[in-house]
């Protein structure tokens, strides 16, 4: 036998060792190794499913948070719009109330001015009448000092009365 060709004993013992090792591996090692590989595959699949589930939950939470933000913005806009409306209404009401109050004050002032004007006119008339009476009295006293002047005045008054009828 040469260097390149193995002998029968070597082939026999190599084959016998191979089959013995194959038997031992099949009997004791293949099942636990295959079971470990299968367990590992199942845990990887479970982790992938959990990751997908977490990803979908994150997406749902993100959509939910975006929806909540949108609703919050809408609510804020509605509140701002309502506040602006209330402010404008309050301003309009205040302007209207001030205008009404100013009108009342002006009307009261006009009435007071008219009353004071009437009172002043009455006072002036009274003073003019008193002055006229005083002046007439002085004039009459001056003219009626003598009897002839008194008769002439009575005659004139009688003529005036006759002519006015």
Structure description:
The chain has two helices and no strands. The chain is rod-shaped, with a radius of gyration of 65 Å. The protein is mainly α. The protein is 93% helix and 0% strand. It starts with 7 loop residues before the first helix and ends with a helix. It has one domain (31-164). The longest helix has 136 residues, at 8-143.
What's the helix and strand layout?
Layout: H1 8-143, H2 147-164
* Helix and strand element order: HH
Radius of gyration: 65 Å
> What's the overall geometry?
rod-shaped
Main sheet? none
Gap from first CA to last CA = 189 Å
Mean pLDDT: 88
Residue ranges: pLDDT <50 for 5 or more in a row?
A: none
Features:
single chain, 165 residues, rod-shaped, 2 helices
Brief characterization of the structure:
With 165 residues, this protein is mainly α. It contains 2 helices and no strands.
